[in-house]
Amino acid sequence: MQTILVTGGTGYIGSHTVVALLESGYKVVILDNLCNSSAKVVDRILKIAHPNAQLTFIEGDIRDTNKLDQLFKDHLFEGVIHFAGLKAVGQSVTHPITYYDNNVYGSLCLIQAMNTAKVKTIVFSSSATVYGEDAPVPYEESMPRGNTTNPYGTSKAMIEKILADQCIADNQWSVAQLRYFNPIGAHKSGLIGEDPKGIPNNLLPYITQVAIGKRKELSVFGVDYPTPDGTGIRDYIHVVDLAKGHLKALKKIQPTHNNPQEHRQGSGEHIWNLGTGQGYSVLEVICAFEKACGVIIPYATEPRRKGDLAAFWANANKARAELNWQAPLTLEHMVTDAWHWQQSNPQGYN
Ligand SMILES: NC(=O)c1ccc[n+]([C@@H]2O[C@H](COP(=O)([O-])OP(=O)(O)OC[C@H]3O[C@@H](n4cnc5c(N)ncnc54)[C@H](O)[C@@H]3O)[C@@H](O)[C@H]2O)c1
User: Fold this and answer.
1) pLDDT tens by residue, 223-236
2) CA geometry: angle 274, 279, 282, nearest 5 deg
3) Angle between the 12-23 and 40-49 helix axes, to the nearest 10 degrees?
């Protein structure tokens, strides 16, 4: 049984990925400082996976180098999936140092500890934002890292570059840079889902909080974009499909003990877009939610938000060809599962 370290594993995408790992027979150690999640997630994960699943939760920060070194001494990890990070774009503009410290310095601490322990396989949570503001759509992995528009995006591009350089320096490193598009939805059990603190930054949690009566109306930022209905277009992907993409990527880049030749094939830097390849506008998502869930969402239109792009979506061919991975769950699944999660947990994990 292989053991995987999952940083940020009690968070939104991390928790869904831990479920997928446990269900596939991995042993998992979560390291999370709970700055944007709850320890209650651990029990929920076990309820879904199996009460006896091999899961250890350690509360701690990736910048705590002593803790990290001890963790790598205590466990024999086959690889790391690295979700831990701060992700609010707007907050990164007002608090850049916090973001570079947490995301970039934190990742450096982790990579350093991995190197010392000779654990050289990592799946990294990157983002479509690294393509920058001038990239043509759909985004393809062969495009260069672009002009990022905020410190959050820059922190992701910097971490990608650090990992890429490490692969050049040491050919035993295997790195998957997974560029996510817009994860939404929740596990179908309704036990885990997205639980934003304060006013949600993302569309779907905002919609579900309006639907449950927690907020009066939805703000739609920007109705004058050069898109068919004037609202922004994004490539929404079900978080469960996204989670499964991590397993495929991990398996692809992991060294196999009985086949060193295969190890060499998996090593180096690999970039994969994890999206559906299809974009939906804000108004289309609202309509899909109203239709699938039978709740009307009142909304007010607001000016564009600084730094938001008009429209982007993935070219998802590379992940399909190389990982044999696709995202089959539809927008209807995404909104229905998000609504089920919100109804089952009106106050999130509280
Ligand atoms: N959700 C998205 O739309 C999206 C899109 C692209 C990329 N990403 C990236 O995916 C990753 C996971 O995103 P998410 O939506 O699950 O976010 P999340 O906030 O739900 O999860 C991140 C987890 O990391 C933990 N964490 C943060 N800093 C830490 C630190 N220094 N030490 C230990 N734990 C720490 C938080 O407590 C949280 O549990 C993040 O790196 C994010 O930037 C997310």
Assistant:
1) 999 999 999 999 99
2) 120
3) 30
Atom number, ligand 1, closest to the C-alpha of residue 37: 39
Asked if residue 62 has its Cβ within 6 Å of ligand 1, the reply is yes
Model confidence, pTM: 0.97
Q: Are 181 and 276 in contact (CB under 8 A)?
A: yes
Domains of the chain: 3-184+236-274 (3.40.50.720), 203-234+278-311+319-344 (3.90.25.10)
Q: Is 99 a catalytic residue?
A: no
Do the beta carbons of residue 240 and residue 329 sit within 8 Å? Answer: yes
Distance 6 CA to ligand 1 centre (A): 11
C-alpha–C-alpha distance, residues 308 and 326, integer Å: 27
The 10s digit of each residue's pLDDT in 261-316 is 555 567 999 999 999 999 999 999 999 999 999 999 999 999 999 888 999 999 99
The answer to whether residues 20 and 46 touch, using CB atoms and an 8 Å cutoff, is no
